[in-house]
């Protein structure tokens, strides 16, 4: 892991904002800088190293400089200042179609693209079947590329770049996704490449991909590197930042930069500084500290943008919130940064504007992509409210144990009742709330859900064979 594969030193990229094609010609053709031309800093003084077998996620809002940085590392763009050294064969999947000739068929394009990536004919022939297999488009491989859908071209491009055993692989996640099955296959391939020593730079907007695949994450914003550290920490800070309005975002950004100027250098005190930073977003209660006791907190800026308040049919859901639940079951502070493993309650008031019968309440938790993870309802016989009168208010609550990890989650709430003999929603709010989950620093569970895994192993005496049907014979 010690061998440096990518060394980026003081890289800046300045674009000139040409006002006419003539200005561009003057500058590019004759190297004369047009008078009064505006310049734009797409990257400012970026430095970092990536080692053999390391996978680094590059995150940041649209226009933050991610592609510019990766194009410079892939040597398809030159920096205005600074240097990049890449040690080993590099393959980049940054733009769909680059590396392909639309007139060639799939098979010819494999040779064309792989030879551009530095393989000779014999090496490509050796890998040809694996590439075709991986792409999953064998039936179309002898048809011209121009007849492919973009998804098919993407499959072929990912297959070529990932099957040539690059020492350095640069991937824009947007180009490594097709349908879910292929997406999974791409992630598995990236994991395998990483295990075999490939260095991977990975542009992504997905917290899950970054935390699952990457050893480190770099957060770029307006061309500056704001953070470089463990993916969990960088993603939490980045997600907080993404939910702030512009004024608070500017303050938070400043806070990130000012809090520890050495944060971006590779100094000794980086870790301690990051711990401080992680839980002290602008506007957030500064109650939390990582380590033995992490605490839930409330960030008023974490408000879902996707909220949908549906039409009311005689009821109105108000004041949706998540509260802490004490050991004696009483409700505590309102929170939206939760701690893994603790109990919380989704609470809301339902104000009835019309009489209602047989009323039930429900709450659901979804991922950013809309996958329903679970929920609770009072729909069963005996749990429902038999009758409510117009003007009455009811406080509903759904207590749950937070078995989720890391990402942002969204809560939808609803209330249904009988109208004209049929059950129908009286009121619903989709994405009424959002929350994130903190995990202890030493918690080593993976993925989205805390299954409370308890892992162990037993060293077997020589010659003794494992009996797979025997319970507890080997927990691993
Ligand atoms: N040729 C160019 N001339 C002027 N400005 C440019 C040029 N190419 C990129 N930029 C600007 O540089 C900034 C960084 O662009 P870049 O494409 O690297 O961002 P990004 O983080 O990859 O964005 P996205 O997530 O949208 O792909 C943007 O503000 C963009 O408008």
TrEMBL record:
InterPro entries reported for this sequence: AAA+_ATPase, ABC_transporter-like_ATP-bd, ABC_transporter-like_CS, ABC_transpr_TagH-like, Bact_Polysacc_Export_ATP-bd, P-loop_NTPase, Wzt_C
Gene3D superfamilies named in the record: abc- transporter (atp binding component) like domain (2.70.50.60), P-loop containing nucleotide triphosphate hydrolases (3.40.50.300)
Spans through the membrane: none
Domain ABC transporter: 28-247
Keywords noted in UniProt: ATP-binding, Nucleotide-binding, Transport
CDD domains (alphabetical): ABC_KpsT_Wzt, Wzt_C-like
Matching Pfam families: ABC_tran, Wzt_C
The organism's place on the tree of life at top rank: Bacteria
Cellular component GO terms, alphabetical: membrane
GO molecular function: ABC-type transporter activity; ATP binding; ATP hydrolysis activity
Keyword check for Nucleotide-binding: yes
Similarity remark: Belongs to the ABC transporter superfamily.
Full protein name: ABC transporter domain-containing protein
Record organism: Oceanibaculum pacificum
Organism classification: Bacteria, Pseudomonadati, Pseudomonadota, Alphaproteobacteria, Rhodospirillales
């Amino acid at each position: 892991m010690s061998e440096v594969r990518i060394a980026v030193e003081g890289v800046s990229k300045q674009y000139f904002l040409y006002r006419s094609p003539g200005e561009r010609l003057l500058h590019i053709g004759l190297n004369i800088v047009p008078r009064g031309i505006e310049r734009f800093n797409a990257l400012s003084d970026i430095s970092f190293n990536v080692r053999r077998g390391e996978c680094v996620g590059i995150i940041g809002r649209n226009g933050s400089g991610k592609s510019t940085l990766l194009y410079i590392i892939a040597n398809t763009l030159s920096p205005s200042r600074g240097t990049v050294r890449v040690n080993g064969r590099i393959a980049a999947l940054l733009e769909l179609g680059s590396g392909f000739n639309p007139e060639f068929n799939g098979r010819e394009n494999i040779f064309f693209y792989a030879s551009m990536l530095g393989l000779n004919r014999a090496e490509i022939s050796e890998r040809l079947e694996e590439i075709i297999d991986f792409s999953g488009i064998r039936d179309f491989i002898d048809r011209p590329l121009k007849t492919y859908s973009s998804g098919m071209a993407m499959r072929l491009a990912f297959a070529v770049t990932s099957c040539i055993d690059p020492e350095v692989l640069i991937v824009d996640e947007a180009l490594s996704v097709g349908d879910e099955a292929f997406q999974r296959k791409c992630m598995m391939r990236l994991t395998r490449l990483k295990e075999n020593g490939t260095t991977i730079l990975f542009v992504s907007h997905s917290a899950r991909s970054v935390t699952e695949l990457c050893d480190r994450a770099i957060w770029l914003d307006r061309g500056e590197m704001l953070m470089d550290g463990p993916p969990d920490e960088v993603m939490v800070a980045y997600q907080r930042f993404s939910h702030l309005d512009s004024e608070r975002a500017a303050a938070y950004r400043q806070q990130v930069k000012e809090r520890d100027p050495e944060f971006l250098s590779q100094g000794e005190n980086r870790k301690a500084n990051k711990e401080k930073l992680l839980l002290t977003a602008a506007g957030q209660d500064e109650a939390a500290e990582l380590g033995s006791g992490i605490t839930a907190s409330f960030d008023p800026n974490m408000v879902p943008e996707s909220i949908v308040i549906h039409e009311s049919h005689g009821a109105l859901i108000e004041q949706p919130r998540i509260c802490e639940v004490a050991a004696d079951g009483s409700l505590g502070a309102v929170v939206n940064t939760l701690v893994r493993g603790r109990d919380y309650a989704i609470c809301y008031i339902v104000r009835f504007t019309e009489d209602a019968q047989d009323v039930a309440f429900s709450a659901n938790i979804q991922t950013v992509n809309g996958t329903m993870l679970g929920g609770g309802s009072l729909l069963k016989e005996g749990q429902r409210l038999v009758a409510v009168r117009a003007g009455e208010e009811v406080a509903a609550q759904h207590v749950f144990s937070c078995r989720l990890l890391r990402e942002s989650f969204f809560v939808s709430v609803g209330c249904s009742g009988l109208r004209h003999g049929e059950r129908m929603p009286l009121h619903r709010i989709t994405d009424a709330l959002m929350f994130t989950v903190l995990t202890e620093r030493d918690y080593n569970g993976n993925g989205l859900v805390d299954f409370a895994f308890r892992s162990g192993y037993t060293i077997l005496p020589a010659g003794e064979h494992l009996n797979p049907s025997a319970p507890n014979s080997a927990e691993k």
